[in-house]
Design a protein that fits this description.
Elements (H helix, E strand, L loop, with lengths): L18 H10 L4 E12 L13 E7 L5 H4 L5 E8 H6 L1 H17 L2 E5 L2 E14 L1 H8 L18 H4 L13 H10 L2 H4 L12 H6 L7
Parallel strand pairs: 1-5
Antiparallel strand pairs: 1-2, 2-3, 4-5
Length: about 220
């Protein structure tokens, strides 16, 4: 872990070098050994030539810890299965599909796990820092529209579909912010806002929620 904190070598390209982690680590977890946690949600395609959506497609949710040495991050023993569900359940019953996963993440953040090294017990805590996935899965878990033919289909901005065909730049006024995110949820009209429902990950994870609400969807 000390290697990752140095300002030299390729190890500096790690999530703990980012401003979000350094700004939130100290005030939210004083005196604790905290490890960042990345959650990846991906489709498990039964027919490789088929679409990512379908009645019998499966969705897998995995954890990995980016703070371990880079040479060990891709080892299967360091990638942990959180859940496997039907992809259709994630779309229709999003909160129910991920409730157990979110409860487990909250436990790891608040209670942590005890690790014994050289007969010394150390309490290690984990903080969810990033949620990854393909466009369909990320849209489903974050409450945005999962199809690109919708009027407002982008998770990062509020540009209308017709305007995306002509414009090459996005004005700052169109970018999603915590303020217009809450306002769009209050409007409750997906055709006008592109928001189907609140992101169920908000309210669970310290780093994702307190930094910004909408950026969890980017």
């Amino acid at each position: 872990m000390e290697i990752l904190k140095r300002n030299e070598g390729p190890e500096m390209e790690n999530i703990i070098r980012g401003s979000l982690w350094t700004e939130k680590n100290q005030p939210d977890f004083p005196g604790k050994l905290v490890m960042p946690l990345i959650c990846t949600i991906t489709v498990m395609i039964q027919v490789t030539s088929g679409a990512h959506s379908g009645t019998h497609q499966m969705s897998g949710c995995y954890y990995n810890v980016p703070r371990i040495p880079p040479r060990h991050q891709s080892a299967l023993e360091n990638i942990f299965v959180a859940s496997i569900t039907y992809a259709s359940d994630c779309a229709l019953e999003n909160e129910c599909a991920f409730r157990k996963v979110l409860d487990e993440i909250l436990f790891l953040e608040k209670e942590g796990v005890t690790i014994v090294v050289n007969e010394t017990e150390t309490q290690v805590y984990f903080a969810l820092t990033l949620v990854l996935g393909d466009n369909l899965r990320v849209a489903e878990v974050t409450g945005t529209v999962p199809v690109f033919v919708s009027n407002i289909f982008c998770r990062k901005c509020k540009m209308h579909r017709n305007d995306t065909r002509r414009r090459v730049r996005v004005g700052l006024a169109l970018l999603r912010t915590p303020e217009n995110y809450e306002a769009d949820l209050a409007i409750d009209d997906v055709s006008l806002t592109g928001m189907r429902c609140p992101c169920i990950w908000n309210g669970y994870c310290t780093l994702l929620t307190t930094a910004w609400r909408m950026r969890a969807t980017t």
